[in-house]
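re: ur question from earlier - yeah i can do the single chain one, its not a big deal. heres the input i used so u can compare w yours
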Amino acid sequence: MTHETVQLDGVYMEFHALNTVVVGSGAAGFNAADRLHTFGQRDIALVTEGLHKGTSRNTGSDKQTYYKLTLAGGTADSVAEMAKTLFEGGSVEGSVALAEAALSARCFYRLADIGVPFPHNAYGEYIGYKTDHDPRQRATSAGPLTSKFMTEKLEAQVVQKGIQIFDGYQVIAVLTDVAREKSVGLLTLNVNAPDNAAKRFALFSCTNIVYAVGGPAGIYQRSVYPESQTGAIGLAFEAGARGKNLTESQYGVASIKFRWNLSGTYQQVLPRYVSTDANGKDEREFLLEWFADKGKMLDAVFLKGYQWPFDPRKVYGYGSSLIDVLVYHEMINNGRRVFLDYAKNPSCCGENGPPDFSLLGKEAYEYLEKSNALFGTPAERLAHMNQPAIDLYKAHGIDITKEYLEIAMCAQHNNGGLYGNAWWESNLKHFFPVGEVNGSHGVYRPGGSALNAGQVGSLRAAQYIAARYTESPLNAEDFLRETKDRIQETAAFGLRLLENIQPNGNALEIREQIGVATTRHGAHIRSEQTARETAEQAKRMLTALPSLTRVGSAEELPLAYQNRDLLITQYMYLSAIADYIEQGGQSRGSYLVYDPNGMPPLKGLPEEFKFTIDDGTRSEKIQEAVFADGTCAFEWKRAGKIPDAEDWFETVWNAYMRDEIIR
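and the output i got, formated as tokens:
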């Protein structure tokens, strides 16, 4: 790694040159850096806008799941079977599914070896359980904070190896060669010194970029993503990286004072769903107004535990996702606040006396019976079954055994993202999106498969870089010749704002506008018209952003640059949604598409909830998106089948010895 200072049109910038930069400090980013070092590539660094920001370190659920090959008992499983499960989620590339299955055990055992506390029995078997969209029992968990433990243990490996970390460096441009065929570096904003003209901008010339920036959290108002997570996928679009399955995300019920998924036992203990007016008055149990059969209501709440993501297939017939529709309707159309109450039982099953568990269906009743939880209030049942779920909220100043927990329908995970091949390399050569920013998952995915995908993808990227992309980065002169125009254009945005500092900055107001629009028109309730209108609004705002934005000080520059990224992101995602519907796409995955010829979930619900389940004809195709010259275009490509991989040992051995595997 070399360091110097360069000058571009009178602007001084730090200049660092090295083989590989890993962007992001979550579980995928740290794993990439750790694996690169292990594979022999030592000319590396990790760049992050905040070491302790990001989703991996700051999110979880009642029992955060890690999905991998079955590693216990006599249940039949295989790499091929797991790959088939991932592939059948729809719009998934077969080669990627096979890689995620094949390397799941290797990545899981690595995490266990470095100290992530996954539970095993007395004989060393890592016992599993069944998660959503999982035909086996491949899931495991280290508790509510599985990804946090992963991040901390992987960070310790990076620190131990002495890998340099640039903390407080926000990427504001992904830089490519003039032909826009490969990435060559990064322009970053030093958020530690935005008011220091000599240190404000830093350049990284690097042969390779491992892009582990997480999901597009900042485009949503209602989100389970931690507030510290914003995302930076728009910068990759701007550089020429293709998008993939941008229509596919997951949404579900979550708390909003402290952002957390309310899945698993949070639902299985049967809390009350309560709504109030804006001032917390006029309380009512609104679900009772829609469920004629109170037992079906309790079953729907129970099933919401392990059918947590909204799924239009589970709406009709009083399914678990009808809960999501009714929560949204109560908030958006009725203008009320919605809460979970764990202190009292739903009134239909004994609010002031012993619960009437006889109302429950067989599945819910047997679950609670086997858990020895046929007693008490929801809070008492939760304490019995999962005390850490209560402790988690107490650690954030919320006692759910005594106070109402305000909730909303929230964005939780992006199943789509950036295109990557079976080595996780983008169409932009030398650029490797890993973790949630990589769109590997398709329409449906087993719960916890994202954590596995992040580890597998970062391992694959590190393998490829260490084996094939070892050349030195561009020197300062050659680097600036290739990237000068992009650097000047990006830096000029911030410098213009600094020339006109005003008392009241509005970057947060613009962020709020972006979030409100996406949550209303690009989350789990969609229509072609509103998606297209919102996309065009984002495009107009992006064009006008330099004149729309005011900053009160240099410290607000990071927010202003984030808004650039978010508007590109919003434009791409909403345009993708509109394109999908225009192509005939209907409700699938985790969203409901308005269809005037469809049926509402229940009589009495508004027109916007009429929908039709998609016929599945698009599940064998992948929507790819490209951003160029300020606009976007889409291509629909057939997903490749799972490869018929060579399994004759001598053949593989000889190819391995001839260094023909990593290609």
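The radius of gyration is 25 Å. not sure if urs matches, ping me
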